[in-house]
User: Which sequence fits this backbone?
């Protein structure tokens, strides 16, 4: 069960996820045909649509949004999290062009001997407190919304991460449903095992779990996509806020073409966050990169938000810093 310090957060998050957020999401597995990422459908079967000079450009084949094929050590990733219409789940709830501009400015604060690469982390599978039609305790965001966020990310040459909170569903199955997006050069994956619960469990009432073996299966799938479609290095982020969420971590192995990042999601005052960082980073498997999450609301209830300088003073230095 969640600790006494973390339970109020989970209760509040559960109330949000199980109410307003679910109403915004697409619970159907197949919402109908949609344009493939980064492409515009023709106006009719015989009349092509006129060119749109403002259409976002797909990155060059095999390259990241701002060039190159490797995320690290060239880039410093800085991100915003969000879900359409839910301010409580991060800043990417609406006004995406404005938020992208703010993220760009924030990224400049993290230019510590690396090139900043802004990241939009969109929650595309959200855990629910009710079973839903298939009793998997999760809802899926519609393709039209994913396309909207990808278009904004491309206009600003940012990386898009698709965040999965699987509920009772099989995590790898949920990831594979996103292949049409993940085979794009500027789309990565985030997995939030806190919301991956077992049979008979309900998200928000208990912490979900994962294992090094399960992370291997996801990373191996991503590695296969990189090889098949000749993609640049693919970001694979997994979030962790407690030791109990991840077991058998040392079983994880590096996979070609995949940059795996552990995002340490400790909540609270700076001292609490640093303490969580000290518990979770020493256990990282070889080759895993360190990430750090800040919460605009939950963290500031206990004091000022950590500054970029304070974050970058952590050891090891975070290579991905994300704000929710």
Assistant:
């Amino acid at each position: 069960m969640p600790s006494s310090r973390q339970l109020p957060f989970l209760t509040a998050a559960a109330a949000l996820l199980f109410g307003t957020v679910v109403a915004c999401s697409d619970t159907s597995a197949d919402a109908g045909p949609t344009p493939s990422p980064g492409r515009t459908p023709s106006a009719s079967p015989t009349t092509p649509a006129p060119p749109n000079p403002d259409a976002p450009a797909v990155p060059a084949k095999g390259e990241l949004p701002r060039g190159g094929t490797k995320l690290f050590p060239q880039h410093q990733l800085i991100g915003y999290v969000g879900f359409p219409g839910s301010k409580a789940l991060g800043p990417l709830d609406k006004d995406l062009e404005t938020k992208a501009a703010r993220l760009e400015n924030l990224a400049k604060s993290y230019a510590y001997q690396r090139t900043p690469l802004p990241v939009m982390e969109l929650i595309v599978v959200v855990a629910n407190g009710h079973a839903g039609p298939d009793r998997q305790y999760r809802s899926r965001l519609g393709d039209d919304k994913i396309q909207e966020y990808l278009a904004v990310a491309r206009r600003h040459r940012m990386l898009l991460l698709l965040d999965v909170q699987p509920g009772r569903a099989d995590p790898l199955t949920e990831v594979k449903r996103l292949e049409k997006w993940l085979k794009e050069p500027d789309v990565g994956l985030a997995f939030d095992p806190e919301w991956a619960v077992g049979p008979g469990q309900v998200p928000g009432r208990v912490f979900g779990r994962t294992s090094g073996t399960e992370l291997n299966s996801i990373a191996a799938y991503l590695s296969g996509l990189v090889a098949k479609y000749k993609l640049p290095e693919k970001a694979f982020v997994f979030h962790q806020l407690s030791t109990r969420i991840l077991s058998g971590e040392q079983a994880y192995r590096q996979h070609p073409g995949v940059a795996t990042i552990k995002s340490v999601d400790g909540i609270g005052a700076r001292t609490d966050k640093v303490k969580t960082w000290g518990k979770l980073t020493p256990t990282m498997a070889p080759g895993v990169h360190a990430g750090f999450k800040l919460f605009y609301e939950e963290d500031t209830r206990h004091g000022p938000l950590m500054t970029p300088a304070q974050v970058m003073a952590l050891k090891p230095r975070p290579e991905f810093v994300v704000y929710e």
Summary: The first strand starts at residue 75 and ends at 82. The radius of gyration is 19 Å. Confidence is low (pLDDT under 50) at residues 1-53. Residues 7-26+68-323 form a domain with the TIM Barrel fold (CATH 3.20.20).
